[in-house]
Amino acid sequence: LDALWIVINIVTINHRKIMKIISIIIMISTLIIVLGTTLLSRQPRAQEYCIKPFTLIQQAKAQPTIYRSIMMNIFLFVPIGLSVPNIVSGKRWYRDLMIVLGCFVLSSFIEITQFIYCLGRAEVDDVISNTLGALIGVALYYVNNCIAEKILKRK
């Protein structure tokens, strides 16, 4: 999804309205996927939580498959950080900070909901990973724009 977004952005760099519509579709699709996989598709079970940061990294040393879970949590929020800058205007630093903070709040909401309704293991590490994913997405937005501008200058 991220690679597709980058290609679409390069092709539509001069067509901001089209890019905004595509970004809205990507953001809504991502939110549906995030909420579907983290809340809506889960059945109640025993209440589990972990509030100690970076516990998953420590556990992953003994159980390498946990790294996959960490990476999935990071990649889950990259499309939001990548698409929202095309939708929301304003001062760059403020807009970007609000995007990352918004993803932090969304991720916290998901983890708190998982805890309250026993829909999975609520972990601080998931919030950290999701927020990092949003930050990476915002950074990719700027890298992508730099690449697109260089390509357009060559033409």
Question: How does this model look, in words?
Answer:
This protein has 155 residues and is mainly α. It is 79% helix and 4% strand. The chain has six helices and two strands. It has helices at residues 2-11, 16-40, 55-62, 65-87, 92-116, 124-154; strands spanning 48-50, 121-123. Strands 1-2 form a two-stranded parallel sheet. The longest helix is centred in the C-terminal third of the chain and has 31 residues, at 124-154. The radius of gyration is 17 Å and the shape is elongated. The model has no long low-confidence stretch (mean pLDDT 89).
The parts where pLDDT drops under 50 for at least 5 residues are none
Find the count of extended strands (DSSP E, 2+ residues).
2
Order of strands side by side in the largest beta sheet?
1-2
Query: How far apart, in Å, are the first and last alpha carbons?
Result: 27 Å
* Rg calc: 17 Å
Q: Could you tell me the strand content as a percent range?
A: under 5%
Q: Per the principal axes of the C-alpha atoms, what is the gross shape? A: elongated
Largest sheet: 2 strands, parallel
Helix content: over 70%
Which series of helices and strands comes N to C? HHEHHHEH
Structure classification: mainly alpha
Work out the helix count: 6
Average pLDDT over all residues: 89
What topology does this entry show?
Blueprint: H1 2-11, H2 16-40, E1 48-50, H3 55-62, H4 65-87, H5 92-116, E2 121-123, H6 124-154
Parallel strand pairs: 1-2
Helix pairs in contact: 1-6, 2-4, 3-4, 4-5, 4-6, 5-6
